[in-house]
Structure formats: structure tokens, C-alpha cells
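Worked Example 4.2. Consider the chain below.
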Amino acid sequence: MVFMRGWSLPLGRWVGVEIRIHTLFVMLAVVCMLYSQSMGRSIAAGLALWGLIVAAVAVRETARFMVAAWFGLRLRAVLLLPIGGMFAFATPESQEQANSGKSQIALAIAGPAANLATALLLASTITGTSGSFALFAMPFITPLALLRSAIWLQAFLGIFHLIPAYPLDAGRLFRNALTQSNVIPNASRALNALGQVIALATIFVGFYLHDPILSSAGFFIFIGSQIEDQGVLLQSVVDTVQMREVMLTDFSTLSPSDTLVDALRRCVHSLQEDFPVVRGTHLVGIVNRQRILETLRLDGNGYIQGVMTRNFQVARPEDTLGAIIRRITAGRGLTLIPVAEGERIVGMVSVQNLMTSMSLLSEHRKLERMETER
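Applying the procedure from the previous section yields the following C-alpha cells:
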């Protein structure tokens, strides 16, 4: 999803899936360092505690990733948050499968099970090798006892996601079940409100106990709920917008027999970055302005057919924007999708103009509603 790129940093790709980390982790690192200093320990101890939280999230999301692969769900990206992670699926079919049936239940169970199993393994290993290990000493999570903290962070993250409050695992599972069965009207809104109440209660309990980690957990549940709701809202919007509503209809095309110098002259008088290349009425390629410039500088003049790319996809006017966004994000280097009726190009959608078109469409719809209400 597009919203994943806001306020997040890329960590690279793993087996073709983009891994991103939310900048909330930076805030959490500051909290851990301040907590460590208040306990009389060094900043390094606070960073070590932060690393244990990251490790607990990594254990959880690795388990969920493996379950998704087992069920054949195609992932496009994973966004890591301090309370867990969010998946962006590469296809609508994978998204639908993840929200229903056995895969839905397995994904909800995998994270808590992995964290609780890891906590049990660490506890049994450490207590077995050290008979004097104070596993149940207070506080459970502290930079003063990192081994004990490692166990309880895994346990608490697993237990936390068993609470039936959105966006935690049990809450998401409960919400989907109520939504599909229509048992409770507006189930999503009710569970989201419950999640926010629990988050606020956790924050206040953390303040009362002077436990910044617990307060931070409540804060991140609250923020995570808002982030996921925004993603669901954006997805519902883009899946109702059709290409004919946002495609550019005033655009220039090039011919494969055009020279690069002629094409550059056309570029001077156009704001387009990408140009469809057509032979008659047939689309045969796409060329980028930067590609034209680079070739002219390095190799001199030539023809468009020598520099155009044949790696493109064609949309129909009735295709949804959500489907096109998934195509653009799935295809590396894909910056433009022509829109055609039969063999005739009637428009195009480019990454460069997409957000502007969506903003203008939103304003247009708002004005239409105002006219209707008058």
C-alpha cells in the first residue's frame, strides 16, 4: 500500500518482499535510553533493551511471514511497528484469503505463539543453567536485567496480541468474524473504539506504575490503530476509483521512427516525463525523458525505437485505481500505464501525476456533493 511509505524507512528486500520500519521505533529508542538513564544505567543498556524489543517483533513477524508463505499468500511489503507488523499483499486474492478461512486464523495465532514459545524456551534455558535466576523479580522489563527483560518482552508481546482489541491479532480476528457474520452493526468501529480505550488505559497504568515501557506500549497500540485504519480507508477509496476518472487524456505520443533530437524538442514543450510510443494506433513501447537525454549525451542522436522499453502493461478505462497501483508497485521501474479501449490509447496513468489527479478528483467529488445537497 502507498501509506506504508509514509514515516517509514526501508530495510531492504527479503525473498522479494520489501521490509520497512516505522519511525516510531526511533521514538521508542529514545524512551529506552531515557528509561535506562533514570535507572542509573548507561545509554548503551537502553539501546540493548530497545534491541530486545526489535528482536521480539522480528520473532513475531518471521513466524507470520512463514505462515503467509505456507498458505501461498503473495506479500508486497511488511511494515514493522513496535507492537508488531502490517502486511501489504501483492494481489487482491491474497488480501481476501488473508482475511478469511484457515489462513486468517493461522496468521492471528502465529505471532503470539512464536513469542510465547520463544519466551518459554529462553526461560527454561536460562533458569536451567542458572539456579539463582530471578525470573519473577520486579520490574519484569528493565535495563538492569536484560536477560529477564528478553523473556518477558517476548511473553508480553504474545499475551498482548491475545486481547480482543483492534489492531491486535485477536481483535483483528474478532473484527473480521463480526463483520462477515453481520452479528453487530459497525463492528469495526466498535472494536476500534475498544482498542483505543485499552490503549489509553495501558498508558495511564504505565504512568501510575512509573513504567515507561508499558505507557509506550499503550501509545503504540493507539497509533497502530490509526495507521491501519488509514490504510483500510485508502484501500477502500482506491478500489472504487476507475481509470477513466483519473487518467490523463491530454498527452503527447512519440513514434519509434522519431529521432532523439526531435523527441527532445517535443519534451521541451511538454510537462510529461514518460511518453507512449505508438506505431499507427498500436502501442509498441514507452520512453522516459531522462532516458532520451542520457542516450543523447553518451551515444549521440538515434531513433526512439532503440531506447524505448517494451516492458509495459495496458489498463482499461473501467479498471480500478487500486489494481493499477498494485501493478505499478509490483513492477520495478514501471512509471506509466497506458489506458486503452481496444487498440486505441485513450489516456495514461503515471506515478508523476497520480497524486495530483487523486487530489483534484477528491475536490471534484466534494463539489458535486455540495451541489447535490443544495
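The chain has two domains: 2-190, 243-373. Strands lie at 8-14, 17-22, 75-81, 84-89, 274-279, 282-288, 336-341, 344-350. Compare this with Example 4.1 before moving on.
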